[in-house]
Amino acid sequence: MSGYKTFAVAGAGAIGSIIVDELLKEKAAGKVDKVVVLTRSAAGNDALLAQGAEPIVVDYDSPPSLQSALHGIDVVISTVITTALNVQEPLGDAAKAAGVKLFVPSEFGGDTRQHTEGPYALKAIQRRRLGQIGLPWAAFVTGPFADAIFYVPHLGFDIANGKIEVGGTGDSLASFTSRRDIARYVVHVLTSLPASKLHNHEFRVEGERTTVNRVLAGYEARTGKKLDITHIPLDALKERGKGLPFNIQYFIASILELGGTNGPEDEMNVEWPDFKPQTVVEAILSYKP
Ligand SMILES: NC(=O)c1ccc[n+]([C@@H]2O[C@H](COP(=O)([O-])OP(=O)(O)OC[C@H]3O[C@@H](n4cnc5c(N)ncnc54)[C@H](OP(=O)(O)O)[C@@H]3O)[C@@H](O)[C@H]2O)c1
């Protein structure tokens, strides 16, 4: 047991809501005492309340609002949207002031270390900042969401309509993990490892290490559905996105093609040998929009 019993999730969206769900399972089992959800709006919180979470409306521009919401909280799990990563600065400061013991920054993607620009670079800066203010952190490198990424047409993946555009060859190995498995892993380690194994530790989580082409072939074999697949060179993808504020399809395709694993295989999931994650095809088939 980690000894951490009270949790606040900031921004319960695509990944955060599933982490909340897993925390509430542990609350029902008696391992967790309290699950707070920090949100900017009082509207739409009925489902969280019904599940047993405590929504608290916060203003990220108001340190007193954040500090008061974090009173008595052991662990903050930030799952704020990529475009609002900056709110983690006031949130981290408030957490430190409120006596929070551990901060999980909103990462939940690929390895941020080689990036000098874009959202991954900002995530790396945010993680370093936690160290600078003396707030212990635990970060999760997960790779793309195995269940959701193939349903995002602006990434070239429109599996719901059978149309796929792969950037590059599609033959490079990459790590994928479903949101449910990420949430299971996060909650498992936060509620079972001692503080000494959580503080300032990067967890490398991997549902399956495979290639985009193998996933698509596996999906076709499993479902009997034929996908309309085209391949486009990375350079062409880069050129096509010129002028966009952020060329997200090129960004994700480059990660999958040029360095998409979360590290050496023997460094994956080491904190939970009995993890048993879904394969990517299973995750795709379990996706609920
Ligand atoms: N690996 C992958 O494939 C993958 C895919 C998607 C996302 N991610 C990562 O996962 C993390 C969470 O992403 P997500 O897709 O789960 O996020 P999301 O669902 O789009 O948003 C999460 C929450 O952020 C809050 N939020 C939105 N705008 C905000 C603002 N301007 N200021 C403060 N809070 C704001 C909202 O909560 P309230 O409205 O309740 O305040 C929202 O529910 C990010 O770090 C993202 O990069 C990874």
UniProtKB/TrEMBL annotation:
Residues 8-266 form the NmrA-like domain. Keywords: NADP, Oxidoreductase. GO terms for molecular function: oxidoreductase activity. The keyword Oxidoreductase applies. Pfam families: NmrA. It comes from the Eukaryota. This is NAD-P-binding protein. It comes from Calocera viscosa (strain TUFC12733).
